[in-house]
Amino acid sequence: MLKIKEDLLESMLDKAIHSIQSSNIKLVSYTKQLDDINPLSFFEAAKSIRGNRSFWKSSVDDFYMVGVGAAFEIETEQPDILYIENKWQTILEDAMIHNPYQVPGTGIVALGGMAFDPYKKSTDLWKNYNASQFTIPEFTLTKHNGNFYFTSIVRVNKNDHAKQLLHQLKGKEKELLSPLEDWPEKVSVVSKEEIKPEQWKQTVQKATEEIKKCNAEKIVLAREIRLQLSNQAEVSNVLEQLIDTQPTSYIFAFEHGEDCFIGATPERLVKLEGRELLSTCLAGTAPRGMTEEEDQKYKFSLLQDQKNREEHDFVVQMIKHAMEEYCENIDIPNEPVILALTNLQHLYTPVRATLKEGYSILNIIDNLHPTPALGGTPRKESLEFIRHYEQLDRGWYGAPIGWLDSNENGEFAVAIRSGLIQGNRATLFAGCGIVEDSNPEAEYEETNIKFLPMLSVLGGL
Ligand SMILES: C=C(O[C@H]1C=CC=C(C(=O)O)[C@@H]1O)C(=O)O
Ligand SMILES: [Mg+2]
């Protein structure tokens, strides 16, 4: 840091300390540009504060965010995203921000997520994850359009000393930006346990019966597998492999205490840049072929398959309807196209719109989640079925995860193709949309393909 910049940060800290009122949260943020730095190395360099790191890579853009430490946590056990919104706005009103770049994901940012269904009783598996939790990191590395930005955020207290805070910041920054000496090893799967697959197939059967009785139109059911690993899984290594093997997915990790929720999801829930909004309808699945010819065959039959088209169309109709409330200039193509991923292909309909004034990204999430790609149609009936009959604790699986910044930019994905790593154990999740014509055996096979991205990077193939 140049002397002149240090002086500016010191005087910001000093001013913040002297202006603080008894109960308010005063954050000071300072953003500067860095030379080339590998986001994964930055994540790994922060391993001394393991338990408090977040990682995000966008699916299509060369955009990364790595959050380290916690200047402040916004969390709630209540099923109330708007509590998060209010707290976030209050924090921003009191914050002092130095950010000459105004690039998405810089300045004051928050990274986090929430439970799929806060009304379902949670188990010990997810004890380290709140109903919703957003971290404002102490340090954020952002890669945007080939440029690197480094933001430091300090929560100041009345009795702090600016010089001392600055000294601590410089020490931590040096540690985070120093070259790495070694890179963690891969793990492998020692044993794999599928949780009650036959019972799961019976639940699928039960769902189709409920649909035939017109009690719902679509219900998404998930199942889990538990893995015993050769060693404690190193998150940096797992992330590195996910980036390599799933280049068109969002790659994410949210560490909470000893645990890490991690995955590679293709499903964007919402991206907001200024008022420009993107969303995605993703549902309907087929495998990839072993040859070009076989791949094309799967592709064409997926595009024409009645059952998959129905699964997909429920998502399109719901998102279209939700967008009409908050957006204008809504653009949704009439026909889906194929989104081909490493292990499977999906029916995909992109959505573009302009967000009306007065609404935020958290309003959109509140409205969209869960889409029929993860819940079902109608929402109320399908969620009741899931709550009652699904045997697992989804936790944050299937829920919105992502980030937002102080300039109304943000992006959230749906946390699928994911797992919870707990030392040398991991729990993986995969689900599928059940409609009237679903066949339990075929749906079981579909979930098997959806486990592959996580299973392969944990050394389970
Ligand atoms: C619920 C999952 O996928 C959803 C997203 C895309 C396709 C889906 C399907 O075809 O069933 C699912 O709705 C999952 O991967 O765990
Ligand atoms: Mg499906």
From TrEMBL:
InterPro entries in the cross-refs: ADC_synthase (IPR005801), Chorismate_C (IPR015890), IsoChor_synthase (IPR004561), MenF (IPR034681)
Example of a GO MF term: isochorismate synthase activity
Protein name per UniProt: Isochorismate synthase MenF
The entry's keywords: Isomerase, Magnesium, Menaquinone biosynthesis, Metal-binding
Residue span(s) of domain Chorismate-utilising enzyme C-terminal: 197-450
Family as reported in the entry's similarity comment: Belongs to the isochorismate synthase family.
EC class of the enzyme, as a word: isomerase
Source species of the chain: Ornithinibacillus caprae
